Amino acid sequence: MPADHSTRATEIASLRRELEALRSDVIAQATHAHRQGYAIHPDYRDSADNLLLYLALRRHDIRSLQMRLATLGLSSLGRAESSVLATLDAVLLALKGLAGDASDEKTSPCPADFSRGQSLLRDHTEMLLGPAPDERSTRIMVTMPSEAATDAGLLRRLLDAGMDCMRINCAHDGPDQWAAMIEHLRQAEQQLGKHCRVVMDLGGPKLRTGPVEPGPMVVRVRPRRDEFGAVVTPARVWLTTAPQSAPAAADAALAVAADWLAGLTEGSIIRLLDARGARRRWTVSAVTPEGCWAESLKTCYLVPGTALRYDAAPLSLHQAVTRLDALPAREGFLRLNTGDLLTLTADLTPGHNARTVPQGCPTTSAAIGCTIPRIFAQVQAGESIWFDDGKIGGVIETVTPDRLLVRIRHAAPGGSKLRADKGINLPDSHLDLPALTDEDIQNLPFIAAHADVVEMSFVNTARDVEALENALQHLGSRPSGLVLKVETRRAFDNLPAMILAAMKWPGCGVMIARGDLAIECGFERLAEVQEEILWICEAAHIPVIWATQVLETLAQKGMPSRAEITDAAMGHRAECVMLNKGPHVVEAMQALDNIMKRMQAHQAKKRAMLRELHLAHANVMSE
Fold first, then answer.
1. What is the CA radius of gyration of the chain?
2. pLDDT at residue 111 in the model
3. Angle at 591 between CA 585 and CA 597, to 5 degrees
4. Which residues contact 289 (CB under 8 A, 6 or more apart)?
């Protein structure tokens, strides 16, 4: 026997022994875990078993084994997620054939074993998200803006563009607005002959910054200029007798004295000295019963007490001068630089920037409140803290019952602005916060009566999933589907247990909430983490929703970036992609529909689909 043939035979025998040992260990571990007492819905029993088998398989480092199998032209087990045992058995059968073993020790795996996993995933996806549209297996979910409650046409345009799931974020608006959104959807469904799932998102615990002292009462009036500084459009100022919004787009709306306003006519010149001492003049362009429009060709800053004057006609009964009263204060913010100290307080006293106290004492740190002060007892010095979607980061230096002292370690050059109602993340801390808030429980009756799917925010443990189940038990109905939003490091660590707890529902799925998750796990780890979530969910045969900032600049500004087009295409590996609201959300919906249809011919989960290439240089093959 040639030496190379002998070496090959030895390698085949060695691989067979290793793979059989791996198979036995995987089955033993999965049997030991065996659903851990979870009440699994009948439709998910096979999926729960496969998930446990996959978790047992992934406890082993099989990279060396994979490379050796690949050199023999065999499956390297890299796509075993949906059918773990069938994949192992197929490779063992191939090794037996290569060894010339004709025994009946093992039978050939039934082809249905492989298709079974894919079929279960399709069925579970349809149960949760509805039937797949034509030419596209990936569903598209759209978060509703507040305007959806008053603009029925928006729902019709989104549904016509291909929206499969309408998402209502219960952290915004209220039952009256939600009901109007759903009614507009139903009208659009009847008009277009389509159906769309209603998904409602529980707000969860809102760990956010408290209010901030308002900024100065200053109004800036500024014309639009071109690249060379020439005025393209004058600034438009609405003058009226009482504070109210302007009837059309305005750069400022000002309340002035009635008898002064009555003396203005079209063409009147208003003169003023602005807050900087700059002389400015406005021209009255239109007079209406409700007020006047004035235009300015130069920028000016207005404060309470600014005098407005015009040249009154002789013997006029109207005053020629009026002074501006109270103006709306600018939104306040803290400016934080790297190295600054920030005090996070347990009360919601309006926050402020750093201050110098009297008699030469040290400057006090900037301070801002926290909406959930109970976390102060759950954090420790040395742990990291992030604000505003990771824009500002720091390390906790001191912990007391009513305040945290934070040293800022991450801020933009020149400082970052921290405003009220911005998210706070504590990725190193073990926070014990209930996923269901009092507000969530109050919203559950509406959700149970109107939603097809409920999304659970900031769910961290299987206990949180059971809490939602218990809260819904006394209600007459409940949504048929549950989506677990994975947005914390703890949720990622506990994902398998949460999935098993969610498998009690007729339909369940997972959302990769990439915004908070990136902060919690580190931006550099996000790609790795989302891959693992995709693998685990495929092993459980449950759908994944790819969320956060998908085509964000397209939805907000009308023009996508190149990077987000690639990101959206990657979303095809999930069963659903979510768009957030924006002025151009319909265009984003159309673009995403097109991208998903194109990607379907190229990719199926981790598997590249080798469609024929349509390249000019492919003609070389025919020469």
1. 31
2. 47
3. 135
4. none
